[in-house]
Task: structure prediction
Amino acid sequence: MAVVVSVMAAGCGRMSNWWQRRSAPIIAPFEQVAMDESPADEQSSPLPEEDQATPAAPVVGNQPPAEPERVVDTQPVVEPEPVIENEPIVEAQAPTRQPISLDNARIIDSYGFQVNNTYITVEELLRSSANALAELPATLSEDAFKRQAMAIIQREVRNQIRIAMVYDEAQTRLSEGQKKYIDDEIEKTLRAMIEGGGGSRSRLERIQAERGTTLEHVLRDQRRRMMVDLYLHMKFHPLVHVNRSMLLDYYRRNLQSEFSKPMRVSMQIIAAPFSAFGGQTAYANSQAARIDAREHIENAKARLDAGESFDEVAKQFSKGPQASNGGVWPIMEAGSFKEAKLEDVAFAMNAGQVSDIISTDSGFYIVKAREVDAGGVVSFEDAQAQVEESLTAEIYKKLDADFIAEKSRTTLINFSKDLEDLALRKAIERYRK
Result:
């Protein structure tokens, strides 16, 4: 059990809040195990290629498999039995021996896809994507929604193929203690979800139903994903060796993207925009509005010069968007603020400094650099723990991708790109706000 805990902590320490993220964490641990071993009692040599029979179609529901059909010098075609949309998934029983690559996968139809003897429908795919799709912002344009929804759908297709290829193997190889650990994590997740949903399981179930899925389906999906992740993490673990030279290389490669912090400033602004003195009429851009705004900001400046605190003067005089908050804006990087001139002044000051009156095309302002984070580069020594964590995750991710690519060569995968288009149309109907 100690091994289980240490491995899970290394690869999925934040797994208990998986539902708050767009995708499940990739835990990736490796003994080299043959993925397509023949049974021990199988003594005969394989038949020559021309004498091999076409593998039987997978059994779906209670229907018997189709009779095998002999084919010479051609790729055997598997014709699955028709499946209704809500028919239960048939779990894989054994990997096929006929290598079929993802690139050459044959189309069965646009209502689902097949991985060995597992058949995943469009509805199943949408249920697994429901929470991510439901959380897409309502402010997205139609094109942006389509792009992001399609990315979610495609990611879930890859997830489901990966799980279908590895789940039975993980179920067989993981110990009862490791499975118990996953069950405990799922239980913790459920309690956290209920707490985050207001403390009511029934309310959480209603939310999932409104999104087109069920709580049971969500937890089942996550348990299967965690089983695969933990199994592969255990499998890859002996192959992951990190030394100082590798850490330095990763640090240098990612210095700008991961280990450099830009300067940030929190501004406090006393704003006197022309529109605040002229409303939405033509008067807003008139000389009279400008005169009123100038007089207002000069009164505020006089109060500051007399020794009053910036907080008090801002609360009384600021007429900008953050006036009710004393003119305080959150800490931001350069380029985040609409009024570039104010930002330029603030980024040139030290913390606590106050500007003179600043004139812009929209009004008059006084800005204070309330908080300054100088940013800079994090040293290798200070970043070493983060570097090791990131590099280890990078290695696991590559091992995972290579393993799945290799396994796909001995996995029967029938998939149609039409399925993604159908799933997207259904997602637009259900989740486009």
Notes: Residues 63 and 177 are 37 Å apart (CA to CA).
